[in-house]
Amino acid sequence: MYPSKMMKGLFPIVAISIAGMMIARANAQTPGPTTGVGWSANVQSTSGSVTPSASYAIVDATQYTALGTDLCAMIASVFQVYNSSTAQGIIVDARGVPSSALTCSNINPWGTFLTSISSGFSNTVLLPAGTIIIEKSWILPNYTHVIGLGPNTTVVTAAGGPTSDLIEMGQPGNPCVIKPGVYDCPGIVIEHLGIVGNGHEKGISNCCSQELSRVNDVSISNVTTGLALTDMFAQNSGPYSNLTISAVNKCLSIGPASTGNVMINSRGVHGMTCTVSSATYPAITIDGPSNSLEDISISGASSTTQDGILIGSQASAQGNLLFNIRGSGLRNIIHISGNNQTGQTGTGNCPFPETGVGSGTVYNVCDVTILGVSTSVSNGITIQDDLTNSSIADPQVAMYIVGEIIGTNSTNIGYSRYTTASAPTTTNGTPWLVGTVAPSASCSSQIGTLYSCIGTSTQCTSGGYTAALWECVGSTGWKHIQ
Amino acid sequence: MARARLLCGSRLMLLALIMGVLMAGSTRTAAQEGDKTVWAQSGASTVLAASTIWVDATSFCGTGGGTNNCNGASFDFCTVVSKALTQLLSVSPAGGVVDARGVLPFGAGTEPCSSDPFVPLETLSLNPPVTILLPAYNIELNPTSGAGSGTWVLPNNVRLVGTGFQTVLLGAATCCYTAGYLIDMGSLTCSTGYTGIGIEHLQVVTQALATTPSTYYGGIDNECAGEGSYVSDVKISGNPSTPTALGAVGLMIGAGAVNSGPYTDIYVVAAPGNTCGSSYPSNVSCVSVLTQTRGIHGISCLGSEATGASSVSAGILVNASNNSIEDVHVESFYDGVALNDTSLGAINNIFVSNVSAGDTGACPSGGVVNAVHVYSGVTNATITEVSNINKPAYSIEDDVTGAKVENCNGTGCAFPITSGLYVLGGSEGSTAGQYTRLATTPANPTVYGGSSTVVPVWGVGSTLPSGSCYIPGTLLSYTSTGGGIYACTSGGSWAALP
């Protein structure tokens, strides 16, 4: 045999031998820090042939089958070995789990962390491509990062009929208990994932996950509510960004908090495409204060009554910012509720979280800033504001900002407001117009509108009056002010 | 005959080629320590080979541990990283990844860093992009060596990426960090411009001698790193177990860090673990901005409950034009967001939105006095959606126009105090004290807090304005039939415009 042939023949033998030794070693040893089973490999030797060595940088879930051979069982098996008693944290690489093992048994991979108060063990789980079928909610403990390969590539779906939420960011119990009745599981991150329910309650719910907890690049479909912030213990969470939510009753709900609690604030929802399949519910509800919703596109169920974003219908919702909102198939793209709460200690300029201790009435909403909203529905309403009884019919509105009560606390004669809405079909829109000639057209639907004439005195003369400032007084048209 | 010679020659050439490949492989292997192992194709077979773009630092932990890893080995984290960097640059001069996620002992504890891990990069005139993946573990910077040398100074194009909260870069208790900060994004001298420096998914914890506040120091300092430099998903904190506070700003963005950012998802705890009424050190700011940036988007900023609102301090200082501050939560500072508090000069074009000033509720100073404080010298600032749950407290204090918006008088008043829109434009005309301004909070000392000033607004309503009013200068569009525009007169009554 020629040397070349001999060497060529040796290559597969050597390779198979090495691989075989690795597999044999893996199977023969108990997984754990002392064995390095499932660890990633790197070159250890400084001379001679390539010698693989184990590294704890990443632990491959496929080598862990103590609790079963499906994806969830493999991940849970890893956490059986690596937890706060053996390590400080772990990167679990489950990207190599084959498609035949993606139907999970009735197990929450993170279940082992839910039995006691948080130990501070951090974990990052890398999920494989494919459709992962789960029978039990994934309740995530603190310091958990769940990362897929993309919302169209890694899809978590539910088996069976409606039972519960698919993924929960913490829970009102261990390991999130700070003190009785107070919960926080910080540092929960969900990224690059698709979630397909089977009529289940929510795609992702956050009751109890606060600082540095967020959702990014996630699609959710076939659930009743896509994303829900369900209690005050989700404060300071977010941002919730780059979301695609479809085939749901409701895409997003922020609050109301559980009984006795009041929602606080979030870091906002930035970038969401929302498509609802039901006309029964608003696509988005905001029943909490201090949230920013930016770059939101909503497709309704072609209803003549449906709201895109409904603010403050159930609870206090002051201080919210809405920026770049687009809608179709809806009656109202944004609906500012006029609901109020009775039994307050006072009547107040704005909502406050004291209930059942007085006789005052406080409206749920004040101080809403809306910048850039549009509708593609002809004859639709861009903004329905029940506080000022205004229906803004302009298909595009650059600015609509409603503030607080003008008057006294007990006498509400109006709200501070600025808007650029000026369509004739708008009800109670009162923009500040500017032009180079005196206003002369009818303005019966724009009573209270202000007009600044910046032309020459000749140009700014009408009806025998020359003025730089005019007001609309209704059927009699424009009246000069000064 | 000729064909036989040709075949013989071909076989010799093939043999020489194979031997050459094998020899070259041996040579390369000698320089491949730490490279990630991958399967490679060799003829019809697969063999183990080294990936040069990705170096695993665990190979440099030394011996004495468990099975080919760092468990139980005696090693210095930064020495290991430095060796891995050297290895990476030798096999991949164009840059790559140093994976140090496995460089940790198992079980609770702290691993030391007693040297500068970035030396291999500092000797280069042009740094390639390098990503360093850090483990979920406490890494104590410079626990034993001399003062000032413990600070990590990140070279150009270096990205530090942790695993989240549990990757902790821990300052030492006995070291002074004369540079003032635990991490510098580029050198402090700005002798050269820095770009592409990133810090992600980790926690920075300073600690010092609890009884010696003079030894306290700050978190991250960016004096010189501009384009492509950012901080994301990072917690910066004093040490809650000692407890010790930050001795300098949590995140400093200096004048040379032009166009850096965005700085996103930041959580700063300036003074953890303190108690009410203690003699805890005074507040230091969570963030200070001294140049135009791509903004601070998403931050929670917690100050000292002991001194918080009772002393003049600011959670977020903005002393430069052209910045956006969004999605903010602040507790335990006098000012939540302060614009131009040092009055270094005029600043303009500032956008502030969604500021929520909270109150820990545990201490009298746990709240915030001014959610947003506009100091003199500011023009063209847009402030939208600000709330303050403290009581008494202000949503807005504007020194430029002298405006204050305080929550309401008496018991049972609304809180938090909120302001939907407060836009301060520029000076108008030649008369001093005239500014363009739009606001939605119709503040006045009768209905709002007694310290409130009158803030005229423009409103809308369908109820006939009549009787007294408290906001002279306010306009109200009365939209019912026969309506028009009414004004609140200086005498305190509503009157239709003439």
Description:
The complex is a heterodimer of chains A (482) and B (498). Chain A is mostly beta strands and 482 residues long. Helix content of chain A is 8%, strand content 41%. The radius of gyration of chain A is 30 Å and the shape is elongated. In chain B, a hairpin with a 2-residue loop joins strand 1 and strand 2. Chain B starts with a helix and ends with a strand. Chain B has a 17-stranded mixed sheet that branches. Chain B has a ten-stranded mixed sheet with strand order 7-10-12-14-16-18-20-22-24-25, with no helix packed on it. In chain B, strands 28-29-30-31 form a four-stranded mixed sheet, with no helix packed on it. Chain B has a domain of 43 residues. The interface between A and B is large, with 120 and 117 residues. Strand 28 of chain A pairs antiparallel with strand 28 of chain B.
Topology:
The complex is a heterodimer of chains A (482) and B (498).
Chain A: H1 3-28, E1 39-43, E2 52-60, H2 71-81, E3 89-93, E4 122-126, E5 130-134, E6 138-140, E7 144-147, E8 154-158, E9 167-169, E10 177-179, E11 182-183, E12 189-206, E13 214-229, E14 240-248, E15 250-254, E16 269-276, E17 284-286, E18 292-299, E19 307-311, E20 320-328, E21 332-336, E22 340-344, E23 360-363, E24 368-375, E25 381-385, E26 390-392, E27 396-407, E28 412-419, E29 432-435, E30 450-453, E31 461-462, E32 465-466, E33 469-472, E34 478-480
Parallel strand pairs in A: 2-3, 3-4, 4-7, 5-8, 6-9, 7-12, 8-12, 9-12, 12-13, 13-14, 13-15, 14-16, 15-17, 16-18, 17-19, 18-20, 19-21, 20-24, 21-25, 29-30
Antiparallel strand pairs in A: 1-2, 10-11, 22-23, 24-27, 25-26, 27-28, 30-33, 31-32, 33-34
Chain B: H1 2-30, E1 35-42, E2 45-56, H2 77-91, E3 96-99, E4 110-113, H3 119-122, E5 130-133, E6 138-141, E7 152-154, E8 158-161, E9 168-170, E10 181-185, E11 198-205, E12 218-222, E13 230-237, E14 251-253, E15 263-269, E16 287-289, E17 296-302, E18 314-318, E19 323-331, E20 333-339, E21 347-357, E22 368-374, E23 378-388, E24 394-398, E25 403-406, E26 417-427, E27 435-439, E28 458-461, E29 475-478, E30 484-488, E31 494-496
Parallel strand pairs in B: 2-3, 3-5, 4-6, 5-8, 6-9, 7-10, 8-11, 9-11, 10-12, 11-13, 12-14, 13-15, 14-16, 15-17, 16-18, 17-19, 18-20, 19-21, 20-22, 21-23, 22-24, 28-29
Antiparallel strand pairs in B: 1-2, 23-26, 24-25, 26-27, 29-30, 30-31
